[in-house]
Amino acid sequence: MEFISLAVLVVLILILLIVFFTFVPVGLWISARASGVHVSIGALIGMRIRRITPSKLVYPLIKATKAGLDVTLSKMEAHYLAGGNIDRVINALIAAQRADIALEFEQACAIDLAGRDVLQAVQMSVNPRVIETPAVAAIAKDGIELRAKARVTVRANIDRLVGGAGEETIIARVGEGIVTTIGSSEAHTAVLENPDKISQTVLNKGLDAGTAFEILSIDIADVDVGRNVGAQLQMDQAEADRRIAQAKAEERRAMAVAQEQEMKAKVQEMRALVVQSEAEVPHAMAEALRSGKLGVMDYYRMQNTIADTGMRENIGKAAAPAEPVQEPHGAPRKK
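Above: the chain sequence. Below: its structure as tokens.
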């Protein structure tokens, strides 16, 4: 019985040891103590209870202590619980310290929680980055289109990383400066001869205001000549004027045709009135003869006058020379 009790006790002790070493990262505590970082077993157990992986805080704390940073475990744990990347923050603080850049732990945490890569920002502050803008098209006053590309050398501004605009704003502002410079030029040749005029105009505008970057230089990489927009607009205007004139001419022609049709209708109406009036002449003459307003001799004189007029017309037609009849070409002449 004593042997069985001893065996049960040994098993219980083994189980407790297994649970202890599983729940408490003793190896991590030993590594921290060996590195000169004072982390208590209770702190490690508290991390386990708060569902924090101890290695994600202890190893960055070891790096920070070795680099001489004044960082406490409680601040690191607070930043980790807030959803931050504590390892990236510690690496950024070490890089900033080596590059002699003023960066506090709270500031680095704020930049990290804002969604920006604080380590990349520190590296970009040490090593400036070149941003290449897409081809920006603008039209000079002489109507010639120019397409320009620019390379913008920027450096991260640590103090404006929180709340500052990003690269898209820099590209948009540089494009606006290119359009303004080309559009204000009297001729496109002036821009081709002096491309740095664009750089000077853009730099004088202070485009890095309110952004997370500091513009160091703007270099015009390429300027290409595009379309002759002014000539195209003049051609389009001329074509539009031609169509308008053609439409007005068509309108005048339609009005003339309508007036001609109206005059023909009036002539037909007058002819009908004349025919109607001529048809009423015999009735009027008969009425005049019956009423005594027209005598028989008067009637005969009128008939003689009409007959004489007809004879004269016939004589005039007979005396007129006949038009020569043109024979078909190649036909034989009649003898």
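The longest helix spans residues 229-291.
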